[in-house]
Amino acid sequence: SYCYLNKYYERFIERGVEILMITSTDAQQSKIVVQDLGLKMPLLSNPDCQVFRRYHTGQALGAPLPAQFVLDKTGKIQYKHLFSFIDHNASIDQLLLKVS
C-alpha cells in the first residue's frame, strides 16, 4: 500500500529506483492527497484512467484497482502485482527483491 511504499521510499531511492504513484484524481485533488498523506514519492494525476487501462489494472465500481509494477530503464515490465481480495498488494520485500 502507499503507506508502506512511503515508509520505505528511501530504500528504493538508495537502489537507484524511483517510485511513482498514479491516481485517478484530478490535479487539484492530487495536491491535497500529497499534503494530507505526507507523500515522499511523486504523485501523477491520471483522471481519465488511461494509464490504468494501458496496464490492465482492472476496476471495481468504475474506479481503477491498485497495482504495483516494476519497470526497467527502457519501460519494460519486470514485475507486476495486480490487486486481489486475497493478496491486496505486493510486499515491500517482494518489490525490493525485484529491484536488487
From TrEMBL:
Keywords: Antioxidant, Oxidoreductase, Peroxidase, Redox-active center
Alkyl hydroperoxide reductase subunit C/ Thiol specific antioxidant domain ranges (all copies): 2-79
Highest taxon listed in the record's lineage: Bacteria
Keyword Oxidoreductase carried by entry: yes
Gene Ontology molecular-function annotations: peroxidase activity
Pfam families in the cross-refs: AhpC-TSA
InterPro entries, alphabetized: AhpC/TSA, Thioredoxin-like_sf, Tpx_Peroxidase_subfamily
Signal peptide boundaries: none
Protein name: Alkyl hydroperoxide reductase subunit C/ Thiol specific antioxidant domain-containing protein
